[in-house]
Amino acid sequence: MTADIIDGKAIAADLRARVAAGVARFEADTGETPGLAVVLVGDDPASQVYVRNKGRATKNAGMRSIEHRLPASASEAEVVALVRALNADNAVDGILVQMPLPGGVDANRVINEIDPAKDVDGLTETSAGRLLLGKAGLVPCTPQGCIILAKSVRTRLDGAHAVVLGRSILVGKPLSLLLLAENCTVTMAHSRTKDLAAICRSADILCAAVGRPALVKGDWVKEGAIVLDVGINRVGAGEASKLVGDVDFDAAKDRAAAITPVPGGVGPMTIACLLRNTLIAAARRRGLAQPEI
Ligand code: NAP
To answer: Does 164 contact ligand 1 (Cβ within 6 A)?
Structure first.
C-alpha cells in the first residue's frame, strides 16, 4: 500500500479562504471587522517570525491584526496589565500571547489572565475545562487542525482506535479529547508507556506529538491507518539541516492509507485554525450563531 499524502498546505489554504468569506459575511452583518491581538515579549528571533506570519495571515483573511511588543525586560505585572487592557478593548476579539515568555514571567499566570471569550489559542484553564466537559469553547489550534486533516480522509471517525503519542497541554491532551468527542476509542501514550510499538500497531488513527525525530518506525504503523505527524524536528547542521516529523515518513507511507508530511502537513493548519477561532470568537462575543467554517 502507498499512502495518500494529506496536503496540509492545500487544506489550510482552503480553510483560510472559508474564514475570509466568513469575515466578509460578518462585516456585512455587523459593520465591524474582527481583530486579533498578538503580544510578543522580548526579541526571540523564531517568535518574531511566527508573529509576523500570524499578522500577515490575519490581514490576508480580512481581519485586523494588532501587534503589541514589550521588551524582554518587561515584568510579569506589565504583561498582565497589557492582557487586561486587551480584555477590556471591545475592538479585540482574540488575544494570543506568543510563547515562550522571558524568564521571570509566569506563562500560566499570563495565559489565565486572558478572557476565555478571547482565548483563541484555547489554552486558558477555562477553555481546557470546557473542552473536557464537552461544552462549546475555543479549542487549541494544532489539535483542531489534526481533526480537520483526519476528517479530510474519513468524514466519520466513529469507532476508530486513535492512539495519541504525547500528553502535552498544547497538543496531546486536547487532541485526545477532540478524538474522544469524535467517538474514537482513544489511547494516550507518553514517555512511560510500555511497548509503544504494539500500541501504535493497533491504531486506526496514529497521532505523533512527541518531538523525537522518526520515533515511530514504519512497522509500528497498522496497514491502512491514518497517520498524523505533529512533530517538527530540525535534524542535521548548517545547509544540510532539514525538518522532519516524529514518524519515519518513507517507511510509514508504505503501510498507511493516508499520512501527513513534515513540513506541509499539520503545521500549516495551526495558523488557519487560529484565524477560524478568531472569527468564531468575534461572532460569539456578539451573540451571533457560530459561523459555518
Ligand atoms: P512536549 O510538551 O515536549 O511534549 C512531548 C510529549 O511527548 C510528552 O508528553 C512526552 O511524554 C512525550 N514523549 C517524549 N519522548 C517520548 C518517547 N520516547 N516515547 C513516547 N512519548 C514521548 O511537546 P509538544 O509541545 O506537545 O510538541 C510535540 C511536537 O509537536 C514537537 O516536535 C513540536 O515542535 C511539535 N508541534 C508542532 C505544532 C505545529 O505543527 N504547528 C504545534 C505544536 C507542537 P511525558 O509527558 O511522559 O514527558
So the answer is: no
Dump pLDDT digits (tens) for 225-243. Answer: 999 999 999 999 999 999 9
Which active-site residues does the annotation give?
54, 98, 121
Report the domain count for the chain.
2
In this prediction, residue 293 carries a pLDDT of 87
**Structural domain of residue 108, as residue ranges?**
31-115
- Distance between CA 154 and CA 266 in Å, rounded? 16
162 CB within 6 A, ligand 1? no
The pTM of the full predicted model, rounded to 2 decimals, is: 0.98
State the closest ligand 1 atom to the C-alpha of 270, by its place in the atom list counted from 1.
Answer: 41
- Tell me if 95 CB under 6 Å of ligand 1: no
pLDDT at 292: 85
Ligand 1, residues 232, 262, 270, 273: which to mutate, most atoms within 8 A of Cβ?
232
Give yes or no for a contact between 224 and 1, defined as CB atoms under 8 angstroms apart.
yes
**Model pLDDT, residue 193:** 98
Alpha helices in 165-254 (DSSP H): 172-181, 196-201, 249-252
The identity of residue 37, as a single letter, is A
Is 53 among the domain residues?
A: yes
Residue 3 counted as domain residue: no
My answer on whether 153 and 108 are in the same domain is: no
Does 150 lie in the same domain as 76?
no
Question: In this structure, what C-alpha cell is assigned to residue 280?
Answer: 468564531
User: In this predicted model, what pLDDT tens digit does every residue of 179-225 receive, in sequence order?
Assistant: 999 999 999 999 999 999 999 999 999 999 999 999 999 999 999 99
Which of 66, 81, 115 is the last residue before a domain boundary?
A: 115
Residue that has been written with the C-alpha cell 506589565 in this structure: 78
